[in-house]
Design brief:
seven-stranded mixed β-sheet, Spore Coat Polysaccharide Biosynthesis Protein SpsA, Chain A, alpha/beta, two-stranded antiparallel sheet, 9 strands, single chain, about 20% strand
């Protein structure tokens, strides 16, 4: 199975006050951590982001812009990821947010193991709707919902896809932790130090 991985970095980082993906956790940027984890699980890693692409130049990764930047939700990034995977002939596309420094090393294998066209990750009973494995065959449905007067939230999209939910343990730390605030960044650094991550 050929898998493309897309880091959805389209958010405004308003709660952090600066670009989350370039914040450091345990001496490495969150982006470096995510890329390192995804390279072991996917055939290609791509960044989905708008604005100045130069801020990602050091990664050497392709950057794809939202096809529908007028849709102000993460669904725009997911739609763009599906479109990329379909046009490049991938069997599946993994999407992850740009603020998860501790992604599981078995993310693709466990999500793919569900054998569904869509599967999303969860921890502590909370679904992480942007952390999912999707079939490019869902592109047509994505284009239909993007054409609706009010495109749905990502969680509503996942329900329409009948996505499987796969749970990860949050012990001893949550591998799906999102870093949205300075407090969560401090917690991520504490975890990185305690567990030598």
């Amino acid at each position: 199975m050929r898998v493309s991985a897309v880091i959805v970095a389209g958010g405004r980082s308003s709660r952090m006050g600066r670009e989350k993906v370039l914040e450091r956790v345990g001496g490495r940027t969150i982006l470096e951590r995510i890329v390192s984890l995804l390279r072991e699980q996917a055939d290609i890693v791509v960044i989905n982001a708008n604005g100045n692409e130069e801020r990602f130049a050091e990664t050497g990764l392709p950057v794809i812009r939202d096809i529908r930047p007028d849709v102000g939700t993460p669904l725009a990034g997911l739609h763009t990821a599906l479109s990329f995977a379909a046009s490049e002939g991938f069997d599946a596309v993994l999407t992850v947010p740009s603020d998860s420094p501790f992604l599981p090393t078995d993310l693709v294998s466990r999500l793919a193991g569900e054998g569904r066209s869509a599967a999303i990750a969860a921890s502590s009973g909370q679904a992480h709707y942007l952390t999912g494995l999707w079939s490019p065959a869902l592109l047509q449905l994505a284009e239909q919902v993007m054409a609706e007067p009010r495109p749905p939230r990502v969680q509503d999209w996942a329900k329409r896809c009948q996505a499987a939910i796969v749970e990860w343990s949050a012990v001893p730390y949550d591998p799906l932790l999102n870093v949205n605030t300075p407090e969560e960044l401090a917690e991520a650094n504490r975890i990185a130090a305690e567990f030598s991550l």
